Amino acid sequence: MEAAFSIDVDASKSLVRIEMSGFFAIEDIVRFVAARDRAHHQLKCAPNAHVTLVDIRGMKIQSQDSVESFKHVLNNPKFASRRLAIVVAQSLARMQIKRAASDRDAYYFDSIEGAEAWLLAPDAAAAEAALEAIGHA
Prior knowledge:
The chain has 137 residues and is an alpha/beta fold. The protein has one domain (4-112): STAS domain (Transcription Regulator spoIIAA). The chain has five helices and five strands, in the order ββαβαβαβαα. The protein has helices at 26-40, 64-74, 92-100, 112-119, 124-134, and strands at 4-10, 15-22, 51-59, 83-87, 106-109. It has a five-stranded mixed beta sheet with strand order 1-2-3-4-5, sandwiched between helices. Strand 4, helix 3 (92-100) and strand 5 (106-109) form a beta-alpha-beta unit. The relative contact order is 0.15.
């Protein structure tokens, strides 16, 4: 399955929604990073004050090179979000994203709704309450 992605910015909520599917070659990751960089220009908040929801339920198992490339993408402090929620299916892809995001304080969810409830919580206490209410993967 070919790599596909979409990036949507809700500037009013300082929210970046990313959906990714398929198998990503290095060239696909380069395309993704360029699109992500363009999308971040739509944000109105201060740098690193946004939240990001990444839905990778449609992603296939990635090559080791791709996992390492994604790790570098996730570790770029210029684009790091205040909160990072990853919606992922129960599969080997889950282990791969946890390895790629090991240096980030990311939370993993089974649903978009749960991820958004946590991301958009107004403060740390509300975010913690959202995690308790919905659980996370």
